């Protein structure tokens, strides 16, 4: 049974979401003191976090930063605000998805299931958990990429995108193909969300000298270059 931490200060909405998630056999834990979110996160060790942006004490962006500094657990944001910058900010901070209130509960369930599938199941279908690319070692189990210049840890979304691109190295992978693979149903995803995630992946790889090997092919998609030794 997956455990979901629901960080929502609207008690009516919290109770409704908890009841519905429980019907789907998820274990749900909440927050009593909104200044103690990290303490509860550490204690509960959830498999997924659903967090509102507008919260007492500190906003959801603050807690996302705190969680990301310790864990790559998947995070879904909830927000009643309709500013595009909120979605961009959430993705830049490492969130896995964004849902605007009010939302249809079937959409929430679909997004939760898609996130849990790709985060906890995709590596089980991989023939090997280790792959080499341009002299770097990609570890799909640890979500790390190691190279001569050091080792970086990627978010689940970044690793999934990298996996798709590396498996098709030197070939252009369309944005639509990545979106369908990553989110299962592209109707629930903004085009900008993918752009943000790819840019974050490229920035992370740049820390170990590989950022330029993820190329944007305007109007077509993205490509992971495999450089030939000695060139």
UniProtKB/TrEMBL annotation:
Task: Name any GO cellular component annotation.
Answer: cytosol
Instruction: Please list the residue ranges annotated as the Response regulatory domain.
Output: 3-116
Q: Which SMART domains match?
A: REC, Trans_reg_C
For this protein, the record's InterPro entries field holds: CheY-like_superfamily, OmpR/PhoB-type_DNA-bd, Sig_transdc_resp-reg_C-effctor, Sig_transdc_resp-reg_receiver, WalR-like, WH-like_DNA-bd_sf
Keyword tags: Cytoplasm, DNA-binding, Phosphoprotein, Transcription, Transcription regulation, Two-component regulatory system
Membrane-spanning segments: none
Q: Which GO terms describe its molecular function?
A: phosphorelay response regulator activity; transcription cis-regulatory region binding
Give one Pfam family: Response_reg
Q: Which residues form the OmpR/PhoB-type domain?
A: 128-226
For the biological process aspect of GO, one term held by this record is: regulation of DNA-templated transcription
Principal location listed in the UniProt entry: cytoplasm
Where in or outside the cell? Cytoplasm
Modified residue 4-aspartylphosphate is at which positions? 52
List the PANTHER family hit by this protein, alphabetically: REGULATOR OF RPOS, SENSORY TRANSDUCTION PROTEIN BCER
Q: What protein name does the entry list?
A: DNA-binding response regulator
Organism, by scientific name, is Oceanobacillus halophilus
Which taxonomic lineage does the organism of this UniProt entry have? Bacteria, Bacillati, Bacillota, Bacilli, Bacillales
């Amino acid at each position: 049974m997956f455990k979901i931490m629901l960080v929502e200060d609207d008690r009516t909405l919290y109770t409704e979401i908890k009841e519905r998630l429980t019907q789907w056999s998820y274990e749900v834990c909440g927050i009593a003191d909104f200044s103690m979110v990290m303490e509860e996160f550490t204690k509960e060790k959830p498999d997924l976090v659903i967090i509102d942006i507008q919260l007492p004490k500190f906003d959801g962006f603050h807690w996302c930063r705190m969680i990301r500094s310790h864990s790559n657990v998947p995070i879904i944001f909830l927000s009643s605000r309709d500013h595009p910058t909120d979605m961009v900010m959430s993705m830049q901070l490492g969130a896995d998805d964004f849902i605007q209130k009010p939302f249809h509960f079937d959409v929430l369930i679909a997004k939760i299931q898609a996130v849990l599938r790709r985060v906890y199941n995709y590596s089980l279908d991989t023939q090997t958990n280790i792959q080499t690319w341009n002299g770097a070692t990609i570890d799909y189990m640890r979500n790390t990429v190691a190279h001569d210049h050091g080792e970086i840890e990627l978010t689940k979304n970044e690793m999934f995108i990298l996996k798709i691109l590396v498996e098709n190295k030197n070939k252009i992978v369309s944005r639509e193909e990545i979106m369908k693979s990553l989110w299962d149903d592209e109707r629930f995803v903004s085009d900008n969300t993918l752009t943000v995630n790819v840019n974050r992946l490229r920035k992370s790889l740049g820390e170990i000298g590989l950022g330029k090997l993820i190329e944007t092919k305007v109007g077509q998609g993205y490509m992971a270059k495999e450089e030939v030794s000695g060139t």
